[in-house]
Amino acid sequence: MKAERSHYVCEECGEASVQWLGRCPACGSFGTMREERKETPRSESSGTRAEPLLLSSVEEEGPRIVTGIGELDRVLGGGVVPASLVLLGGEPGIGKSTLLLQAAAALTGRGARVMLVSGEESAAQIGTRARRTGALDPGLYLLCETDLGAVLEAARQLAPQVMIIDSIQTMRSPELDSSPGGVNQLRECVSRMQSLAKEIDAAVFLVGHVTKEGMLAGPRTVEHMVDCVLYFEGERFDSLRILRAVKNRFGSVSELGIFEMTGQGLREVEDPSHLFADSREEAVSGTATVVIMEGRRPLLVEVQALVVPSHLPTPKRVSTGMDHRRLAIDVAVLERKARIRLSDRDVYVGICGGLKVSEPALDLGVCMAIASSRLDRTISPEMVFLGEVSLTGEVRPVSRVGERAREASRLGYKSLMLSDKSKPQAKHPGLELVQVRDVGRALERLGMA
Ligand code: TYD
Ligand code: MG
User: Fold this and answer.
1) What number does the ligand 1 atom closest to the CA of 232 have?
2) What is the distance of C-alpha 121 from the center of its chain?
3) Nearest-angstrom CA–CA distance, 169 and 25
4) What is the pLDDT of residues 306-328, one digit of tens each?
5) Going by CA atoms, what residue is nearest to atom 15 of ligand 1?
6) What's the pLDDT score for residue 385?
7) Sign of CA dihedral 246, 275, 367, 417
8) Does residue 5 register a pLDDT over 60?
9) Confidence of residue 196 (pLDDT cuts 50, 70, 90)
10) CA 266 to centroid of ligand 1, rounded, Å
């Protein structure tokens, strides 16, 4: 590993270097490289004995603590696990404090002892928010403190089952000289919380602010130390919020929690399908609807494409919410296999509602949206697309067609275009299946070839 040989570590991003540098080569911050002494063990044996045990003799994990906020429980894998650490990351202002305050109140309401530690806001501010969101449970404990030692002491006294630290960047251990929020302080804070969680058998939520660029801010450097990493995302000016797990020792990482930020705090969105696809009566060129799977949940999303004449020697291919390499492939396939001329056009493609989709099932919809914009021909808003497009232009089957088709039918879509090799098991009322072999034939069926 790189860090083994090096002696200087950036407090911002954790980049290691063998020599001191005024500016961190990774994140560009100035004056953040600090020396880190490597301790060399004196001898092989530490004097303590360790006993291996038989795996079969280990008991199962204790019961989970259900928060009562369904979308949060779903992402956690069915509630929080005692003696574990959950990191909740997200941009400032996205709603992390609100989510955890609501969770704290819901947990307290279900009889759990919960301690909320805030290093960012005053008790009065939190009280106001609690009243506003209806999260003012009389049994909820609050501590406004930034001193790590004091927080640990209070936690030992109260022995809460769930503890929330908002945020880890504000906590400081006076034993370390470095500034709060720096990598050393973060690591210290997380490792002390780790021991505490085990000691008092509490589930600990740690809030960590992450900047737009994502990578640089501190919390990334402690992801490996926690059991579960959740990210809370959304467009700042849009009310939709998405909670996703990027790491979970106790559950799946493919589940999504969807919330809406309202005047009274976060509201769970249990039936989110309609949110990402504008239900419009009239067709608009450059749009196509796709059914994606987010975890076990089918979601209808709208793909929007804009194709305009380019004045650049290398035309632009810009994507938001999908992989740009896949976009480049889809464009190349359209050009070569379906004779849609794009080499002199800029192509912009976006996924509606701020979602990030990495499923190949998106391909067919992307290709159709691009062709629709390029030819200025509309696609019926009652049609949905499903299919991976291969380099040969072939439309390939995708997984879980049945569930996706059922969702499209439930929401009133009239036809589904998919691969001719897909074998949907059941019929779905009112949903006509249009099976195509390749992109060229897909365009033919839409009257675009
Ligand atoms: P907050 O939870 O403080 O964000 P974070 O902890 O991630 O920094 O949420 C802040 C934003 O949420 C703020 O811009 C106001 C908005 N908000 C509402 O719209 N409704 C509400 O009921 C609350 C409490 C906040
Ligand atoms: Mg906050």
Assistant:
1) 7
2) 25
3) 22
4) 999 999 999 999 999 899 999 99
5) 93
6) 97
7) positive
8) no
9) very high
10) 9
**Protein residue with its CA nearest to atom 17 in ligand 1:** 265
* Per-residue model confidence as pLDDT tens digits over 54-111: 888 877 766 899 999 999 999 999 999 999 999 999 888 899 999 999 999 999 999 9
Beta strand pairing call for 203-209 and 287-294: unpaired
Write out the DSSP string of 51-120. Answer: ----GGGPPPP---B--S-HHHHHHHTSSBPTT-EEEEEE-TTSSHHHHHHHHHHHHHHTT--EEEEESS
Residue with CA at minimum distance from ligand 1 atom 1: 95
Give, in degrees to the nearest 5, the angle at Cα 410 between 405 and 412: 100
Taking 3-state DSSP, the helix, strand and coil percentages for the chain, each rounded to the nearest 5, stand at: 30, 25, 45
Q: Whose CA is nearest to atom 12 of ligand 1?
A: 95
The ligand 1 atom at the shortest distance from the C-alpha of residue 261 is 19
By CB neighbour count within 10 A (0-12 exposed, 13-18 middle, 19+ buried), where does 83 fall? middle
> Is residue 300 helix, strand or coil?
strand
Is the pLDDT reported for residue 20 higher than 90? Answer: no
Instruction: Report pTM.
Output: 0.74
Facing residues of 320 across strands?
350
Angle at 218 between CA 17 and CA 6, to 5 degrees: 15
How many whole angstroms separate alpha carbon 355 and alpha carbon 321? Answer: 6
Shortest-distance atom of ligand 1 to CA 98: 2
How confident is the model at residue 3, as a pLDDT? 41
**96 CA closest ligand 1 atom index:** 7
**Is pLDDT of 1 > 60?**
no
Is residue 353 predicted with pLDDT exceeding 90? no
Percent of the chain with pLDDT over 70: 91
Question: What is the pLDDT of the chain when averaged over all its residues?
Answer: 87
Ligand 1 pocket test, pick from 91, 98, 126, 231 with the greatest ligand atom count within 8 Å of Cβ, gives 98
Ligand 1 site residues (CB inside 6 A) read 90, 92-98, 129, 132-133, 261, 263-265
- pLDDT band, very low/low/confident/very high, at 175 (cuts 50, 70, 90): confident
Q: Which ligand is nearest to the CA of 100?
A: 1
The secondary element (H helix, E strand) that includes residue 128 is: helix 123-133
Protein residue whose Cα sits closest to atom 9 of ligand 1? 95
Q: How remote is the CA of residue 93 from the centroid of ligand 2, in Å?
A: 7
